[in-house]
Design brief:
Elements: E1 4-9, H1 14-23, E2 27-29, E3 32-38, E4 43-49, E5 54-58, H2 62-69, E6 74-77, E7 79-80, E8 83-84, E9 86-87, H3 89-101, E10 114-118, E11 127-134, E12 137-144, E13 147-154, E14 158-163
Antiparallel strand pairs: 1-5, 1-6, 1-9, 2-5, 3-4, 7-8, 10-11, 10-14, 11-12, 12-13
Length: 174
Protein backbone atom coordinates (compact mmCIF):
# COMPACT_ATOMS: atom_id res chain seq x y z
CA UNK A 1 0.00 0.00 0.00
CA UNK A 2 1.59 3.30 -1.08
CA UNK A 3 -0.81 5.63 0.69
CA UNK A 4 -0.30 7.33 3.99
CA UNK A 5 -3.13 8.06 6.42
CA UNK A 6 -3.56 10.84 8.97
CA UNK A 7 -4.47 10.02 12.53
CA UNK A 8 -5.87 12.49 15.01
CA UNK A 9 -4.11 12.46 18.39
CA UNK A 10 -4.88 13.79 21.82
CA UNK A 11 -3.64 17.32 22.35
CA UNK A 12 0.16 17.58 22.70
CA UNK A 13 0.60 13.81 22.17
CA UNK A 14 1.94 13.82 18.59
CA UNK A 15 5.59 12.96 19.33
CA UNK A 16 4.67 10.39 22.01
CA UNK A 17 2.20 8.67 19.65
CA UNK A 18 4.84 8.58 16.89
CA UNK A 19 7.31 7.03 19.34
CA UNK A 20 4.81 4.37 20.47
CA UNK A 21 3.87 3.46 16.89
CA UNK A 22 7.54 3.19 15.89
CA UNK A 23 8.07 0.78 18.80
CA UNK A 24 5.28 -1.36 17.28
CA UNK A 25 7.10 -1.38 13.89
CA UNK A 26 4.47 0.81 12.23
CA UNK A 27 5.71 3.27 9.62
CA UNK A 28 5.05 6.74 10.97
CA UNK A 29 5.84 10.33 10.04
CA UNK A 30 5.47 13.17 12.53
CA UNK A 31 6.86 16.31 10.90
CA UNK A 32 8.53 18.59 13.43
CA UNK A 33 10.44 21.84 13.40
CA UNK A 34 12.70 23.67 15.83
CA UNK A 35 11.29 26.86 17.32
CA UNK A 36 12.54 29.23 19.99
CA UNK A 37 10.22 29.22 23.03
CA UNK A 38 10.19 31.82 25.77
CA UNK A 39 9.66 30.85 29.39
CA UNK A 40 9.63 33.31 32.27
CA UNK A 41 13.27 32.54 33.14
CA UNK A 42 14.83 31.41 29.83
CA UNK A 43 14.60 30.87 26.10
CA UNK A 44 15.04 27.42 24.63
CA UNK A 45 14.95 25.79 21.20
CA UNK A 46 12.41 22.96 21.14
CA UNK A 47 11.08 20.56 18.49
CA UNK A 48 7.35 20.98 17.93
CA UNK A 49 4.95 19.21 15.54
CA UNK A 50 4.11 21.10 12.36
CA UNK A 51 0.57 19.68 12.32
CA UNK A 52 -0.98 20.04 15.76
CA UNK A 53 -2.80 16.84 16.83
CA UNK A 54 -1.95 14.93 13.60
CA UNK A 55 0.51 12.16 12.75
CA UNK A 56 0.86 10.29 9.46
CA UNK A 57 1.00 6.48 9.32
CA UNK A 58 1.16 3.72 6.77
CA UNK A 59 -0.35 0.31 7.46
CA UNK A 60 -0.60 -2.89 5.45
CA UNK A 61 -3.21 -4.98 7.22
CA UNK A 62 -6.42 -4.50 9.15
CA UNK A 63 -4.61 -5.85 12.23
CA UNK A 64 -2.04 -3.04 11.97
CA UNK A 65 -4.85 -0.50 11.59
CA UNK A 66 -6.47 -1.84 14.77
CA UNK A 67 -3.11 -1.73 16.57
CA UNK A 68 -2.79 1.96 15.60
CA UNK A 69 -6.27 2.76 16.97
CA UNK A 70 -5.47 0.97 20.25
CA UNK A 71 -2.27 2.95 20.79
CA UNK A 72 -2.52 5.33 23.77
CA UNK A 73 -2.91 8.92 22.59
CA UNK A 74 -4.56 8.04 19.25
CA UNK A 75 -8.10 9.38 18.92
CA UNK A 76 -9.11 8.26 15.42
CA UNK A 77 -8.22 8.14 11.75
CA UNK A 78 -9.08 11.21 9.72
CA UNK A 79 -12.01 10.10 7.53
CA UNK A 80 -13.18 11.23 4.08
CA UNK A 81 -16.25 9.75 2.34
CA UNK A 82 -16.68 7.18 5.13
CA UNK A 83 -13.18 5.70 4.83
CA UNK A 84 -9.70 6.54 6.08
CA UNK A 85 -8.50 9.63 4.19
CA UNK A 86 -5.65 8.62 1.88
CA UNK A 87 -2.60 10.85 1.54
CA UNK A 88 -0.42 10.25 -1.49
CA UNK A 89 3.30 9.55 -1.14
CA UNK A 90 4.02 12.69 -3.24
CA UNK A 91 2.25 14.86 -0.66
CA UNK A 92 4.34 13.45 2.20
CA UNK A 93 7.50 13.96 0.12
CA UNK A 94 6.44 17.56 -0.58
CA UNK A 95 6.04 18.19 3.17
CA UNK A 96 9.49 16.67 3.82
CA UNK A 97 11.04 18.79 1.07
CA UNK A 98 9.37 21.97 2.35
CA UNK A 99 10.58 21.32 5.90
CA UNK A 100 14.08 20.63 4.56
CA UNK A 101 14.16 23.98 2.75
CA UNK A 102 12.57 26.27 5.34
CA UNK A 103 13.37 26.55 9.04
CA UNK A 104 9.96 27.69 10.21
CA UNK A 105 6.71 26.61 8.58
CA UNK A 106 3.24 27.42 9.89
CA UNK A 107 -0.04 25.71 9.14
CA UNK A 108 -2.87 28.25 9.19
CA UNK A 109 -6.47 27.19 9.61
CA UNK A 110 -9.07 28.56 7.22
CA UNK A 111 -11.30 30.98 9.11
CA UNK A 112 -14.36 33.13 8.55
CA UNK A 113 -13.42 36.16 6.43
CA UNK A 114 -10.49 34.47 4.63
CA UNK A 115 -10.22 34.90 0.88
CA UNK A 116 -9.78 31.45 -0.72
CA UNK A 117 -9.43 29.77 -4.09
CA UNK A 118 -10.99 26.38 -4.86
CA UNK A 119 -8.22 23.99 -5.99
CA UNK A 120 -10.15 20.89 -7.13
CA UNK A 121 -13.38 19.91 -8.83
CA UNK A 122 -15.74 21.67 -11.19
CA UNK A 123 -15.29 25.00 -9.36
CA UNK A 124 -11.47 24.87 -9.63
CA UNK A 125 -9.95 28.35 -9.86
CA UNK A 126 -12.99 30.16 -8.43
CA UNK A 127 -12.23 32.61 -5.65
CA UNK A 128 -14.49 33.56 -2.79
CA UNK A 129 -14.62 34.39 0.86
CA UNK A 130 -15.36 32.09 3.79
CA UNK A 131 -18.62 33.00 5.50
CA UNK A 132 -18.80 30.04 7.89
CA UNK A 133 -16.71 27.05 9.01
CA UNK A 134 -17.89 23.70 10.41
CA UNK A 135 -15.29 21.02 11.19
CA UNK A 136 -13.59 20.24 7.84
CA UNK A 137 -16.32 21.98 5.75
CA UNK A 138 -16.49 25.67 4.94
CA UNK A 139 -19.17 27.73 3.27
CA UNK A 140 -17.65 29.95 0.61
CA UNK A 141 -19.39 32.99 -0.90
CA UNK A 142 -18.54 33.17 -4.62
CA UNK A 143 -19.52 36.27 -6.57
CA UNK A 144 -19.71 35.68 -10.33
CA UNK A 145 -22.10 36.71 -13.07
CA UNK A 146 -23.59 39.20 -10.64
CA UNK A 147 -25.07 36.39 -8.57
CA UNK A 148 -24.20 35.21 -5.09
CA UNK A 149 -23.45 31.51 -4.89
CA UNK A 150 -22.85 29.75 -1.60
CA UNK A 151 -20.89 26.51 -1.87
CA UNK A 152 -20.10 24.06 0.90
CA UNK A 153 -16.56 22.88 0.22
CA UNK A 154 -14.07 20.68 2.06
CA UNK A 155 -11.30 22.85 3.51
CA UNK A 156 -8.79 20.42 1.97
CA UNK A 157 -9.88 21.65 -1.46
CA UNK A 158 -9.16 25.31 -0.70
CA UNK A 159 -6.09 27.48 -0.97
CA UNK A 160 -5.98 30.38 1.47
CA UNK A 161 -5.28 33.68 -0.27
CA UNK A 162 -5.51 35.94 2.80
CA UNK A 163 -8.08 37.98 4.67
CA UNK A 164 -10.83 39.69 2.69
CA UNK A 165 -10.23 43.34 3.53
CA UNK A 166 -13.32 44.72 1.80
CA UNK A 167 -15.69 42.62 3.90
CA UNK A 168 -14.29 43.49 7.31
CA UNK A 169 -17.54 45.23 8.25
CA UNK A 170 -19.58 42.07 7.64
CA UNK A 171 -21.28 43.28 4.45
CA UNK A 172 -22.51 39.75 3.59
CA UNK A 173 -24.79 37.93 6.01
CA UNK A 174 -25.92 34.33 5.56
Amino acid sequence: MNNWFAIYTKSRNEKKVAERLTEQNIEVYCPTQTVLRQWSDRKKKVRVPVFVSYVFVRYKTEEERLKILQTPGVVSFVRYLKEDAKIREEEILAIQKLLGEFEEVTVEPIEKGDKVQIQYGSMKGQEGRVVNTQKDRVIVYIESLGLALKAEVSSAKLKKLGKDEENEGGKYHF
